């Protein structure tokens, strides 16, 4: 069973994301409300199969989360799908600098497309 870690600070977005992922059959979904809680999760649990990561969050944002994961070599090979409301081209360019970011999705998320990306990762077991 595929394990998905969603790191997102907005409760409504988390509800919508979890509900839509469950419609596609994904049941093992964990929510972390900021990058620090996501990091804490990775320190105390098995690595998830995929991370859905927002960029702009309090406490520890998405970029700082990715930097800490790499610095600590903590699940740093797990595919990351950016899910953000940021339309800034700088963010897209910055995402290209991270080897484990496999997709950059702007909100509102097209969940059919997200399911396709996750299915491809699952079926191909892409190694980064």
UniProtKB/TrEMBL annotation:
<feature type="modified residue" description="4-aspartylphosphate">
    <location>
        <position position="54"/>
    </location>
</feature>
<feature type="domain" description="Response regulatory">
    <location>
        <begin position="3"/>
        <end position="122"/>
    </location>
</feature>
<dbReference type="InterPro" id="IPR001789">
    <property type="entry name" value="Sig_transdc_resp-reg_receiver"/>
</dbReference>
<keyword id="KW-0597">Phosphoprotein</keyword>
<dbReference type="InterPro" id="IPR011006">
    <property type="entry name" value="CheY-like_superfamily"/>
</dbReference>
<dbReference type="Pfam" id="PF00072">
    <property type="entry name" value="Response_reg"/>
</dbReference>
<dbReference type="GO" id="GO:0000160">
    <property type="term" value="P:phosphorelay signal transduction system"/>
</dbReference>
<protein>
    <submittedName>
        <fullName>CheY chemotaxis protein or a CheY-like REC (Receiver) domain</fullName>
    </submittedName>
</protein>
<dbReference type="InterPro" id="IPR052048">
    <property type="entry name" value="ST_Response_Regulator"/>
</dbReference>
């Amino acid at each position: 069973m595929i394990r998905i870690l969603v790191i997102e600070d907005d409760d409504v977005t988390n509800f919508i994301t979890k509900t839509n992922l469950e419609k596609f059959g994904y049941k093992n979904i964990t929510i972390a409300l900021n990058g620090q809680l996501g990091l804490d999760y990775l320190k105390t649990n098995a690595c998830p199969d995929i991370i859905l990561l927002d960029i702009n969050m309090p406490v520890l944002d998405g970029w700082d989360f990715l930097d800490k994961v790499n610095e600590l070599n903590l699940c740093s090979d797990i595919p990351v799908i950016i899910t953000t409301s940021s339309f800034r081209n700088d963010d897209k360019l910055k995402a290209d600098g991270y080897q484990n970011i496999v997709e950059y999705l702007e909100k509102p998320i097209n969940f059919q497309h997200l399911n396709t990306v996750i299915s491809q990762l699952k079926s191909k077991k892409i190694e980064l």
